[in-house]
Amino acid sequence: MSEAFLIVIWLLAGAALGAAFFASLRLAVSLYGSGRALYAVPLHLARVAVAVAAFWYASTFGAVPLLAALGGFLIARVVMTRAAVAREKVTP
Q: Of the candidates 20, 5, 31, which has an alpha carbon nearest to the alpha carbon of residue 79?
């Protein structure tokens, strides 16, 4: 496989990881807000553990896959943040 194809694959994997990470963050915040911290804390720990494990796995393939996965993760962060702001925006 070509190097560019592998970078795209890692970028997409990072974006999928980021989308899942920030979706579960949104769920955890709603759980904290509704007083169900007993459910939110394990979710928080699992979210961080999965992200650390995924980035560690990417790092075993070298710096380029790690950076591509991180780039995808950051792209997902921007997309999820903009989607959350658009959801919360009140139109007059």
A: 20
Supply 53's token pair: 């494990």
Give 15's contacts (C-beta < 8 A, 6+ positions apart): 72, 73, 75, 76
Per-residue confidence in pLDDT tens, the chain, 92 aa: 788 999 999 999 999 999 999 999 999 999 999 999 899 999 999 999 999 999 999 999 999 999 999 999 999 999 999 998 888 876 55
| Angle at the Cα of 56 from the Cα atoms of 52 and 61, rounded to 5 degrees | 155
d(CA 65, CA 14): 9
Q: What residues does each domain of the chain span?
A: 3-86
Please state whether the predicted TM-score (pTM) of the whole model is above 0.85: yes
Query: How far, CA to CA in Å, does 85 sit from each of 11, 80, 88, 90, 92?
Result: 24, 9, 5, 10, 16
